[in-house]
Structures are given as structure tokens and as C-alpha cells.
Amino acid sequence: MKNKKGLSTVVTTLIIILLVLVAVGIIWGVVNNLLSKSEGTIESSTKCLDLDVRAIKVLNVSAMNGDEPVNYSITLHRKGIGDNEYVYAKLVIFSAIDNSPVKDFVSGDGTLLGLSPLDTLTGYLNDTVANATKIEVTPYYLDENGIEKICSGTNTFNF
Hints:
By secondary structure, this protein is of the alpha+beta class. It has 2 domains: 1-49; 52-158, Immunoglobulin-like. The chain contains 2 helices and 8 strands. A hairpin with a 7-residue loop joins β3 (88-95) and β4. The termini are far apart. The model has no long low-confidence stretch (mean pLDDT 84).
């Protein structure tokens, strides 16, 4: 009889150890899944913290030439913060009564312009609103898959 009781204690101990291992495995699976989902968000947020892209000059080039539709020459400057990756910009231009759709910062031929740290580049915003007085610049970058990651910080320039 003594042996049966001893065997029962060993079996009970093994079952408890097995249950603890299963519980640890389940908890680790949930925690690991949550951490891996947050990793991309954290990386995106930290890259955006370092970005500072501002408009420093805006000219209505169609007013100078008497052209229609309205086109603007826009000079952007990126401060020397962050790594050497190119940063791009989404632009919205505002007048007292209207605003343009969101457009990319492009060269005269429509090529996307990227700014590295301390860059100052002039691009164009074509076919937009007349009598504009303000522009909003929102930086973004392209991830390793070429997908746009738009940052939450927007800078405004009144002209």
C-alpha cells in the first residue's frame, strides 16, 4: 500500500509540473504575439520623432507668368536630425476659402523629391488653389517594402 501512495504523489507532482509548463507556454505565446505586433509601430514612431521638415519659401509661379492653372514653387528644409534615409513630404495648400487635395512634394517633371538631413530642395505643387496663404507639410518615409509611413507631425507655413 505504501508504494501506491508514493506513486500517486509522484504522478501528482508530474501533472502539476506539466500544467505549469503548459501555462507558461500559453502566456509566452500571447506576450510574444503582442510584442511582435507592437514592434513595427514603435519603430515607426521613433523614426517620426526625429523628422522635422518645414516649408521655408512658397511662390505662386503662375501669378508671375500669368498661367492657369495655379502652380506653386515650394522650398522645403529638413533639419539635421535622424539617420540618412530620405524623407518625403505630403503637402496641402490653403486659401481663405479652399484647400488643395493632399499632394506629394515633386520636382518640375513630377519626380518624387526626398530630403536627407540638412537638405533644402525646391519642388512644385501644380493645379492647385488660387490665392493661397498657408501650406501644411507632413513628412513620411518609405519602409523596407516601399510602403508609405506617414508621420503625425505636421508643420504649417503662412505666406
